[in-house]
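Posting for a labmate who doesn't have an account.
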Amino acid sequence: MVWANDFFHAACETYKKNFGNHVFEGDIADVDFRKLPDCDVITGGFPCQDFSMIWKRGGIKTDRGNLYKYFVKAVSEKLPKVFVAENVKGLLTANKGMAIKQIVKDFQKIDGYGYRIYINLYNFAEYGVPQLRERVIIIGVRNDLPYNFEKPVPTHNEKNYMTAGEALKDVEKVPYNNEHLNIKERTKKIISLIPEGGNFTSIPKDSPYYVKGMISHVYRRLNRNKPSTTIIAGGGGGTWGYHFEEPRPLTNRERARLFGYPDDFIFEGSTTEVRKQIGNSVPPLGARAVAKELKKLFDGKYDKKYNGELKALSGDALRFVDFEEINQLSLAV
């Protein structure tokens, strides 16, 4: 890695701690991409909240949703061989499908080369992550390269998913980011009334401890024999995620384990800031699967494709979006 950017101070400190002191802390709008080091790969994730299926979405109609344009600008200036962008599943349907269509068009028409786009939907549990987490990954391959990206073949399924119980084995021995949160006695009682794998709906409506919930995350307890459900960055309103055995919220190290982070990866910041960093991140094992496939391009170990063999737009996520016909881009090789 040669350069990185975030405006979240704690995330920048975590980056420095684990990767090195080459991260710019500040607004992406203030970056002059022409002055940055050349690179072969650009990775990132523009803000996902405006595309989320949980909350009311504004998509690319909001200032935050439009931040993807700085990703396009970075690619336009540096023209890497590949770019990798991650976002929530809701990106595929935001603005009635117009958001993803506009994003694809903007990357395809980059001056000089243009990029072939591969859009796939991943459930990271299928790649060894102990969490059922669906995310969209957009791969762009520069149009002069005869490389066809193929979605990595899953290594796991319902018969051999990594479970939460396996992931959290001996986690209490890890000295970093493992603080227990102080919670009210009433909250402890609420959690104790919910069985392993259950959520707020397990509490009878006539109970004095009944709570209303909008989403399934509310007071959801892990099931030790299954992967975790999606771990989110927030924590208010009973959405911290709760232990399968003890009536308490998960520690941040437990959350990190459910993402597949190694125990020597140390997060900087307050417990709230660390929870946010983990919940907004890409599970390392999922990222590794994609990186392993892309490595074939840089090793030269792939079957070269030419002209009509390569599509301008492909990927399994296309079944969710009714793309209008997009002209096949010609290869400049």
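Reply:
Got it, the structure tokens are right above this. The domain at 4-156+283-319 is CATH 3.40.50.150 (Rossmann fold).
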